[in-house]
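QA checklist item 7 of 12: single-chain prediction sanity check.
[x] sequence parsed
[x] length recorded as 440
[x] structure emitted
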Amino acid sequence: MSENADKEKSVQNIYTPDGRVPLGKAIPMGLQHILAMFVANITPIIILANVCGIEQGLSARLVQNAMIVAGIGTLIQLFPIWRVGAKLPIVMGISFTFLSISIFIGTTYGYGALMGAVLVGGLIEGVLGLFAKYWIRLISPVVAATVVTAIGFSLLSVGANSFAGGQGAADFGAAHNWIVGSVTLVVSLGFSYFARGYLSLIAVLIGLVVGYVLSICLGMVDFSALSSSKIIGLPAIMPFKFEFNMSAIVAISVIYLVSATETIGDSSAVCSTALDRDVTEKELSGSLACDGLVSSLASVFGCTPITSFSQNIGLVAMTKVVNRFAIGTGAAIMIIAGIFPIVGAVLTTVPQAVLGGCTIMMFGTIVISGVKMLSKCGFSERNVTISALSLSIGLGFTQVPKIFDHFPKLIQSVFAENCVATVFLLAIVLNLVLPKEKKQ
């Protein structure tokens, strides 16, 4: 067999979790994953640092740490340590789910109390993950499918906001954002469906590069921040003194349960859509253990918890590239970006409209993935009731958050701003109380 044939065979391994892929082919695929989640990974830290009044120099180091923690979490998820990690093509990053409660704790009890709560809450989720076999059966297939569908719907507005320039942007919805977002989307779709071989697999990356170049030509990219970025910088370890406040610990531990539902949904989705099988109990246990224990590690770096990134599940579903080594190169790039701040600074110049054009299709793919999972469960009257009622209340009520105004702040933080939490709770309760067979 010729050398070229061997190389071609190895390239085909991108469709298998464990095959070997040439480094030159793997890096662009890993880079796609990082570009799909990069801004979303650092944004929660940027917002939190600003609200909590953390000085600019330390804020920059926290952003640097966020990239490193995301890379470490992704590598552990891909290549487990003991029972920690799912061995699935899952990308981890700083979670938006914790942003609201983190702001509340940080401004009320201090950033040290927030880090103490993140540490303890992560250990709790990690232990629950290691012993998931004793309770994971509560997450029946119809519950998992409903949660995946909710995750997809919850991300649609994220993609739309990015497409228009980013929520709160002064030029939100401007013509140049529409142009860049549309061109990025069309190029990504064009290469995905009309290109052949390797080019079709990196269609999203090609679309992003084209959109980025176009945005530079339109004067949408600001390179001024690059001049003040250091070439290399070591991460800051324990930049805050840990404090342990029971109220803060209880509040953030509740949100960890919400994060766990998203990880369960994402793990189920990646197995269903990309691997064409159901997720195993061992994979769910490892995924949750990684979610919790690496989140505890994040507190050592001054960061809020990490979780699986649904937009990357959409990318895996769209490309069918599940090779762990290929995705692992992306995690390595993220860690390098954290050690070399100039790399991260360059990536942060990618306009939101470009990212929106890349991700809008991915988020829709997650919705369809949830529907496909529901179809496998069967549309019995019981399954339809569980899914329909959970989605209608979960999605509907969170679109009218004032409905929770008379509830305690903790309830508002968990349910008013996170439809996935509401959908998950309702689906679990309905699955437990509704009889398996309807009485005649």
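[x] summary fact logged: The two ends are 66 Å apart (CA to CA).
[ ] second reviewer sign-off
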